[in-house]
Amino acid sequence: MSVFLKVSQQTVWQLVSKVITSLSTLFILAIISQNYGEVGTGVYTLALAYLAFFYVATDLGLNAHLLPYLVNTNTAVWQKLLGGRILISVGLMILSLIILPLLSFNSPDYKWSVLIGSLTIVTQAIFITLQALYQAQQRYDLTCKALLISTPITVGIAYLLAINQAPLPYLFLGHVLGWLVFVLVSVGLIKGITPRVTPLFDLNFLTSSLKIAWPIAATLFLNTVYFRVDVFLISYFRNFSEVGIYNLAYSFFQTALVVPTFIMNSYYPVMLRSKQNLLKVAGILGLLGILGSITTWYLSPYLISLVAKEGFTGSVEALRILSLSFPGFFLSALLMWVLIGRKQYKTVLLIYAVGLIVNVILNYLFIARYTYVASSWITGLTEYLILILQIIILIPLLKR
After folding, report:
1. Do 172 and 48 form a contact (C-beta atoms < 8 A)?
2. Which helix (H) or strand (E) holds 180?
3. In degrees rounded to 5, what are phi and psi of residue 152?
4. pLDDT per residue over 262-313, tens digit each?
5. What is the predicted pLDDT for the residue at 243?
6. Which of 184, 194, 190, 218 lies closest to 352, judged by CA?
7. What share of the chain is helix, strand, coil (3-state, %, to 5)?
8. Whole domain around residue 46: which residue ranges?
9. How far is CA 37 from the centre of its chain?
10. Rounded to two decimals, what is the model's pTM?
């Protein structure tokens, strides 16, 4: 099977999986926006944004670092990774609840949403560990099968609770039960590619891996902060209503960004063996980014109207501005993994640290006056800055 056919096949499976989860997300957002309004949408999406930091923290760069071992079907490594992730996620779940009372934008609905949703930190950790195995063995079709069973449960619970006017935080019960079903189904499916699925709790393995992978972990965390710090500043300087308007647009924007992520998930194991097709992949990603910007600009009013009936007109403007950054995001996804493949862990960390600092400063200066519109522009500007820095650093490395 050719490189591009193999990459395309695995990318398609990931896209199908994302279509399933995206449709469920949009359906839930539609339920919330129509039953709980702008404020409810803001509370719900802000709770998800808060939990997202802990989801990323469960990764800690271990997937990228250990992928070469998993490609060679080292089952013990995967079992130790699973055990380490479970320990890490339990600690992060506790940490998320300790930090929660310290947040200035806290509210009863927000607090209970995070409290219930924090249980998904453990299931997300197991999901990320499963993805490492799927990526190494190029079996993303298994993710799709598990999602087809678990996603309707998440959506169904949210729908039943909303139409019965249940308190907003209860909707997170759907996330908890849905991901639990996903994990249980996945455990049954992976028995076909690995003989042992039980976790091994090896602290020496975990600590030695983290000593090497910590720059990747820090980069992934900074990248998440860089992606979502704006919404917390909007809630601080403005209100939950504007958080809801911005996050509705951002949900569509973030969904589109899975395309380069999935392509790189499929291409990275191939790139570890050969880098001959880098320019072709870069051309494809750049073209997809441009097409994404043009398409989203014209479809924004229709996309927003699919989810929200009224009160979210500002989401159209925000989505259009955000879509202009697609080429930057698509290309930087490739260059980041090229740098990681060359073991430039600390360099990648430095690049995204610069991007985060610039992003936070600009958002802090302009959100209070220019609202979520400023955040939309700043997201794109900082991503193009990151892309430029990546190119500057990679040019001499690729000449060697």
Report:
1. no
2. helix 172-189
3. -55, -30
4. 777 777 776 766 666 777 888 888 899 999 999 999 988 888 887 766 667 7
5. 78
6. 218
7. 85, 0, 15
8. 3-399
9. 25
10. 0.64
